[in-house]
Structures are given as C-alpha cells and as structure tokens.
Amino acid sequence: MSDSPRKDTPQPDPAAPVPRKDPDAPRTRFRAGVRVGAGFGAASFLLALSFGAVTQAQGWGVVVPIVCSAVVFSGSAQFALVATLASGGPGSAVAAAAMINSRFLPMGIAVAGDLRGGRLRRAFEGQAVVDASWAAAHRGGGRFDRSFLFGATLAQWPPWVAGTVLGVVLAPDASLQHTLGLDVLTPALFAALLLDELRKDRDNRLPALAGALLAAVLIAFLPTGLALIGSGLAALMGLWHRKGAPV
After folding, report:
1. Angle at 83 between CA 81 and CA 86, to 5 degrees
2. What share of the chain has pLDDT > 70, as a percent?
3. Chain-wide mean pLDDT for the chain?
C-alpha cells in the first residue's frame, strides 16, 4: 500500500489562520484567575506565617492553628480570634470572628446569581468567595466571573495553609508581623482591590470616596472596627444611584 495521502482526504490549508483561544472560555478564565490569585497567595503566605507564630506565642499547639487556617481561611477573622482569645474567653473570640466574617453574607448574595447547580452545589461553590477573589472576579454591573473566582481562590488557599504550617513549625518571634511590615499587607491589598474596582465601574467612585471620608471622621471617635462598619453606610449611595435617583 502506498503511504501517500488519499486524494479525497481534505488537507489543512497552510495559509489558513490558526484558531485563537476564546478569552471567555471557562478554562481560560480559570487560568487567568490562578495567575491573579498567585500574587495574592504570596501575600497570604507571609500573613499566615505571622499567624502561625502568634498562635505559638499564645500556646495554641500545633494542630489547632493549622486546622483553623484550613477551615476558616480568613486572615481578618483568624487574627481577631487570636487577639480576642488573648484578652477574653472563647465565646467572645468566636463572636468577634463571626462578626468579621459576616461580610461574606452580602458578598455571597451578590455572587449567587453567577453560581450553578442546586442548593448544595451552589453552597459548595460559594466557599470560593474570599475578599481578593470576589473583588477581582467582579465584571461590573453586579456580575461575577465564576471560573475566574475559582481559579483565584484555589491559588490562595495552599499558600495560606503552608504559611501557617511554617509559622507553627519555626515559631519565629510573634513580633514578626510588625518587624517585617506585614501589618501593612492587608490594607495595601484592599487598597489595590478598591482601585481596580473603581477603574472598572465609575458608579462606585462616589460611594468609595464617601466611605473613606466617613471612616476618617468616625475613627477619631470610635474604635477602628466600628469606624469601618459605619463607613459601609456609604454603600447605600451606590444602591440609591442604581435605582435611578440622582447622587
């Protein structure tokens, strides 16, 4: 038999353009999320290292802080838990962490329309809602990139747990967070997310400015946590504007 191709077999045209990957394909968006999440993951690793060190200074042992990072996966709630346990009982510590994590309720409601499946599947997919991923996956207009959200979160969870493990094993000085300036990572992270959000949606600019001014005023009279909660009232301006009222 001859090895030459049959005449009736269509041959590829070398001059034909090579098909490009669809930038909106779920796999492409997932990979884009992983790339963005990797940067957040690096910051998360350093913060988790500090968290592990602080827990050792307070005698948490080895297993508890690692399980806490794997399950809770929230730096703000975990540091609040550590700080409250140092000065109060377990009840007040859990209440403080729960109050901080209550922000995920409106965040979850916002992204719910872009999740898929029944209640159980949507609840499982909702576990990918973390601060950086949620903000980075926002497309504007209240819509979210589901695949991007998953990729960004997946890239952050392993560094967070690994950083905690390293902090527990090495048990560096608990002041590492201040010595290396790690305490500015979280504010810097949220500032970067805010700037990106303002770039994508102009309607958010006025509420963001009002929230910043309100926080600056309240922090002169109230504790930091209450000032931040109070500044969230500026978000009502965004809701008012979307309903068609002038702002």
Report:
1. 105
2. 68
3. 78
